[in-house]
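Q: My collaborator sent me two sequences in one message, no labels, and asked for predicted structures for both. Can we handle them in order? The first one she listed is below.
A: Yes, handling them in the order given. First sequence, followed by its structure tokens:
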Amino acid sequence: MSKYKVIAFDLDGTLTNPERGQLTGFEYAFKKHGISYPSREWLKRYIGPPIHDFWQRDFSLSLEKVIEMIETYREYYNVYGFRENDIYEGIHEMLSQLKERGYTLVVATGKPEQIAKRILSLFDLSKYFDFIGGASEDDSRHRKADILKYTLDAVGASPERAVLIGDRKFDAEGALAIGADSIGVTWGHGSEAELEAAGFTAIAKSPKEVVKYITK
């Protein structure tokens, strides 16, 4: 019998690939605020991590300025960018198999909940999930540990019976912070070197491997 009751999924880089829309949204915000950056390709580093922290650090900005930039980013992303998204191969099959085996499935994403719900609906993924947890609208809840705890609390689950599936080291760190296991996936935006160094409980190279590990 599996040790897990609840399977939590990151969204970006795990269920869907938001690269096209997010990069265009980042460029929109940076250009509107007159902040230079090396290239569009360089901006990929901000797909996944809590950008509040990283934009403050990398551009020596105040938290207030970063919050303003994120609002500008959302001017584009919340209207157009969220549709510039692609689902990874095998995701429907993975979620269907886990749901059929009786697991409680949830989403724990750094995206605001309403946008996360719209993205999941685009790909007919909402039907698999018992709860969709995300960042708060005022951004007071934006770190992965806080989002995961909030999500597990919503379904009455203890971290010890949960595992988070994600593609960046921040997912492993967030899960570890509250005492949950984690599985790193190689098809997202984190390199294999990043995943191996992050402390994930396991690493999966395909959705089939995720199912195999959880149900073993």
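Q: And the one she listed second?
A: Here it is, processed independently of the first:
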Amino acid sequence: MAQGNTQPLDAAGMAHIQGRILAAVVLSQILGGAGLAAGVTVGALLAQEMLGSDSLAGLPAGLITLGSALAAYLVGRASQRAGRRIGLGSGFAAGGLGALGVVLAAVIDAPVLLFAALALYGAGTATNLQARYAGTDLAPPSGRGRAISVAMVSTTLGAVAGPNLVMPMGQVASGLGIPPLAGPFLLAGAAFLGAGVVLLALLRPDPFLLARRLEADAAASAAPSAGPAGSDLSGALPRPGTGVYVGGAVMVLTQIAMVAIMTMTPVHMRAHDHDLADVGLVIGVHIGAMYLPSLVTGVLVDRVGRTPMAAAAGVTLLLAGLTAALAPASSLGLLVLALALLGLGWNFGLIAGTALVVDFTDPSIRPRVQGRIDVLVALAGAGGGSLSGVVMAGAGYPVLALSGGILAVALLPVLLWARRVNALAAAVPDSGSRPAR
């Protein structure tokens, strides 16, 4: 159905469009997931090799997340103006160019170019994360958690395969005269560019532009509280702003804890004689735990509630930090367990926090607000990634891991604050259409 069509949409028509939107998002996320793996798995190792310093090994994660912060803002603005298709497609294209820039920097041994390219590569990681919002624009409020989860679980296919392709891509790179650690960025470049093409070609009708039109039609109707037939986008009532802050805080804290521990784990493993295959296994399990449980998490977020699942994120991240801190450096099994818990805790926090943000944001301005929140999330990750190398160099990996786990406990006072949000939401008429709990 064309976006300019002014005919009302019935439930069947809305479900059909939502299915097409999710299909395009799923395909782009599979490709985008493969692009994510390069920076996570070998970014720190490539910087360590080029710079000859462990203390700067956390810098790539910081640069990637700083780049993703700027990209989150720009993608949000572009989506607000021109729709998700243009915003997300452009972000993935920029990320693909950044990945190819990393390869060039490794070939000519140019650290300055490496840093600039890593920042641009961050646009792909930010866009891959922001694509989760595209699935919620037309989703009914009671199904937003599941819509987010469909987008995220699709990332798993590429994201889990990516780290396990480190060795093969390294061999391909060597055959082309490229440093082996730059090989995964060849894959990332192709994957991000492919994801951008998919969204530009297939994300039609644009979900945000259609949702905005439906909201405008509802506002102009004789019954302002009733949305278009079957759209379940009704109830454009004022929403408590604190809900956005709670959702954002949950995502920020989980991001800091996750990035700080994840970034330094490959360096810690290499320092204790684990090979790249072991590193790829640990990071592959970690990324799988970040995304694969999403379908279950989405259902729990919708049925159990946003706040209980955010609390579960804090507890899980604390367990991850404790396990990583206490695990012997030679124990591959315990490192796999720690990074799996780390990914799972992040998954709980991201889906619960995202659902809260969508619940309490007016549909007409969602992309702009979502982009700003993702800026904060990216900056939090940048701080965690950049400082992780300094902390590890000065105090060791166990202290870093334990600190990340303890930080997650800060979610609890945030969730106590969320009680006020719950009370406000319960007091708003038709609150049943906004399932924030």
